[in-house]
């Protein structure tokens, strides 16, 4: 039999994949946003339709002289075309937004393309280490807070949580009461579920806390902290979290999967002594997702 043809027993019981509209920027180099999201979703058996907010030569962390093409004017037309041809999405997934105008555009796109049974996951990518990114303003942070009211799940770090709540940023280590309070105040903005990243109760750990406002279930899961600051890990975490949820995992289980996968990517990069600006070695961890969701047996010994 020709190698290009699958045996019949390999294609039995195939169902159409779930489909995600990913509204993110595209950085050609540096491993973040869509260059991570597309392969991660594909490895989890999920179809990804990309709606880019901007195209950059690299991400903005640690690089200078990067190119930037704003696609704000293209976003509504792309979404309307998808609507006109009858494309249905199981989830809408948003991340870094390049302007205040894009916040309202994304809100309109959620109204246009959102499905009654679908999931809206918003990663409010605005800042880190207590500061907003240079392209964000307090007015944009307030706009993103309003946008989060349309989400089923939001995935802020502790910096972004502080700006969403208009509260002072607090450095860790944290305590359970503080993290639970932040999560509950975030749920009061409108989302049903909150996943807080960058949470640690001890200096040697780093993880995520989850709160489901409908059940009041709170969870926390962590891994051993790895030295350094690694670009693109927030996008990896949120993407794996979404994959877990769309594949039927509970919120705590999906968050734990995302913590483990992100930690594995960081650990590989740390051991390889890669320039941290260049992103993490997530490609080598992809077999873990393929095996986890039963798409193909993994050949990666670290995934067993």
From TrEMBL:
This enzyme's EC code(s): 2.7.1.35
Listed CDD domains: pyridoxal_pyridoxamine_kinase
One GO CC term on file: cytosol
GO BP term, example: pyridoxal 5'-phosphate salvage
Entry's Gene Ontology molecular function annotations: ATP binding; pyridoxal kinase activity
Highest taxon above the source species: Bacteria
Record Pfam families: Phos_pyr_kin (PF08543)
Keyword Ribonucleoprotein: no
Keywords, ordered alphabetically: ATP-binding, Kinase, Nucleotide-binding, Transferase
Record domain Pyridoxamine kinase/Phosphomethylpyrimidine kinase: where: 86-271
Name listed for the protein in its UniProt record: pyridoxal kinase
Record organism: Solibaculum mannosilyticum
């Amino acid at each position: 039999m020709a190698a290009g043809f699958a045996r019949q027993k390999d294609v039995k019981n195939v169902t159409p994949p779930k489909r995600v509209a990913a509204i993110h920027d595209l950085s050609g180099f540096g491993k973040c946003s869509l260059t991570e999201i597309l392969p991660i979703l594909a490895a989890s058996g999920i179809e990804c339709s990309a709606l880019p907010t901007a195209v950059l030569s690299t991400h903005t962390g640690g690089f200078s002289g990067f190119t930037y093409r704003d696609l704000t004017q293209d976003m509504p037309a792309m979404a309307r075309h998808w609507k006109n041809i009858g494309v249905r999405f199981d989830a809408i997934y948003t991340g870094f937004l390049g302007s205040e105008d894009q916040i309202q555009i994304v809100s309109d796109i959620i109204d246009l393309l959102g499905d009654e049974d679908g999931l809206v996951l918003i990663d409010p990518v605005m800042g880190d280490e207590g500061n907003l990114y240079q392209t964000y303003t307090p007015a944009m942070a307030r706009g993103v807070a309003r946008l989060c009211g349309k989400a089923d799940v939001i995935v802020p770090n502790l910096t972004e949580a502080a700006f969403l709540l208009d509260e002072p940023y607090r450095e860790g280590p944290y305590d359970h009461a503080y993290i639970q309070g932040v999560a509950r105040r975030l749920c009061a903005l409108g989302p049903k579920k909150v996943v807080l990243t960058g949470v640690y109760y001890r200096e040697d750990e780093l993880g995520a806390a989850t709160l489901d406002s409908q059940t009041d279930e709170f969870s926390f899961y962590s891994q051993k902290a790895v030295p350094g600051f690694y670009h693109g890990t927030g996008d990896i975490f949120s993407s794996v979290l979404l994959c877990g949820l769309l594949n039927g995992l509970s919120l705590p289980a999906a968050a734990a999967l995302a913590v483990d996968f992100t930690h594995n990517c960081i650990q590989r990069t740390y051991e390889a002594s890669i320039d941290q600006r260049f992103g993490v070695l997530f490609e080598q961890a992809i077999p873990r997702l393929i095996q986890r969701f039963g798409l193909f047996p993994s050949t990666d010994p670290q995934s067993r």
